[in-house]
From TrEMBL:
Residues 1-27 are annotated as: Disordered. Keywords: Disulfide bond, Glycoprotein, Signal. This is Spondin-like TSP1 domain-containing protein. Coiled coil: none annotated. It comes from the Eukaryota. Residues 39-91 form the Spondin-like TSP1 domain. It comes from Alexandrium catenella. Pfam families: TSP1_spondin.
Length: 113
């Protein structure tokens, strides 16, 4: 029933609540005796390969929740996926490449004396 009115709540879900600070003559409910468990995240995966060679794409990496928070522990608040840009050069244009010098050739014959 809805609080104080005496009418049924249709379509609502019910939740049982236990106080975790019982009086000296009461035992704490079992859930209150369990230790807190903070959220625990796994390690980051390796960055993915860039899906494109030009025009802009994204590397991605992710991680999973190893243990969700329980018993009023700290919830998961960090991100589970990260992205970073890759292959940002426009397509159809040659990307600038620094010149590389090759080895010297042998001396040639004199053309003028």
């Amino acid at each position: 029933f809805h609080s104080g009115i005496g009418k049924p709540c249709h379509g609502a879900s019910l939740k049982e609540v236990h106080p975790c600070n019982p009086s000296p003559t009461e035992d704490a409910p079992p859930i209150c005796r369990e230790p807190k468990q903070d959220c625990m995240l796994g390690q980051w995966s390796e960055w993915t390969a860039c899906p494109v060679s030009c025009g802009g794409g994204n590397h991605e990496r992710s991680r999973h929740i190893l243990h969700p928070a329980a018993n009023l522990g700290k919830p998961c608040s960090d991100v589970l996926m990260q992205t970073t840009p890759c292959a940002v050069a426009p397509c159809g244009e040659q990307a600038c490449v620094d010149c590389l010098w090759g080895p010297w050739s042998d001396w040639g014959a004199c053309t003028k004396c």
